[in-house]
Design a protein that fits this description.
Chain lengths: 112, 116
């Protein structure tokens, strides 16, 4: 399974863009990058995913480098409710299911 | 219905008890998962069911026994657990990869288990 590396913690001011980096240098051609977040004591929440193109949805944007070895999750206008642990995950499709293996994640703190 | 529902939310059991955790989804997802999460650690995959068949067992001890009675339900039977098994147990579901769906895996809120 491809491994991901993320900074253990980051801080961001409320209202500013939060940029969360992730390295996945061993990713292979058919593996997707997924981002989830987990707010304290809740189940992980899906944010966004991509294969090779940049993606945007109502929650965030995902920028994937051309060599696919790293990506950045962008929360354009962070709010206090965005304080959470953010996980970058390489998804493997295996035996008819999606295997998500979580790394250590980045603890993002949004400051007022 | 776009949720994964887990019951009970909290469970306290002794080391000789037998209990079960339940998970339900009605989104037509054909893959379902159990994860275990210790405090301040990321979730760890335990089991994967695809089309009601066990497809992945991540070397989980036999005191944890999964069951998938139908495409909407997933159980985790617990027997002779140890205090170190105390954790948040998360259930998740997704479209099976063969269906071409690339939507995210959806997680329930978890069942917090305490083993005394």
């Amino acid at each position: 399974d491809a491994k991901t590396t993320q900074p253990p913690s980051m801080d961001c001011a409320e209202g500013r863009a939060a940029n969360l980096p992730c390295n996945h240098s061993t990713i292979s051609g058919n593996e997707y990058v997924y981002w989830y977040r987990q707010i304290h004591s809740q189940g992980p929440q899906y944010i966004i995913h991509g294969l090779k193109n940049n993606e945007t949805n109502e929650m965030a944007s995902l920028i994937i480098t051309e060599d696919r070895k790293s990506s950045t999750l962008i929360l354009p206008h962070a709010t206090l409710r965005d304080t959470a642990v953010y996980y970058c995950i390489v998804r493997v499709a295996i035996q008819g299911a999606q295997k998500l293996v979580f790394g250590q994640g980045t603890r993002l703190t949004i400051n007022p | 219905d776009t949720e994964v529902t887990q019951t009970p939310k909290h469970l306290v059991m002794g080391m000789t008890n037998k209990k079960s955790l339940k998970c339900e989804q009605h989104m037509g997802h054909r893959a379902m998962y159990w994860y275990k999460q210790k405090a301040k650690k990321p979730p760890e995959l335990m089991f994967v069911y695809s089309y009601e068949k066990l497809s992945i067992n991540e070397s989980v001890p036999s005191r944890f026994s999964p069951e998938c009675p139908n495409s909407s339900l997933l159980n985790l039977h617990l027997h002779a657990l140890q205090p170190e098994d105390s954790a948040l147990y998360l259930c998740a579901s997704s479209q099976a990869s063969g269906q071409g769906g690339l939507a995210g895996t959806l997680f329930g809120e978890g069942s917090r288990l305490t083993v005394l």
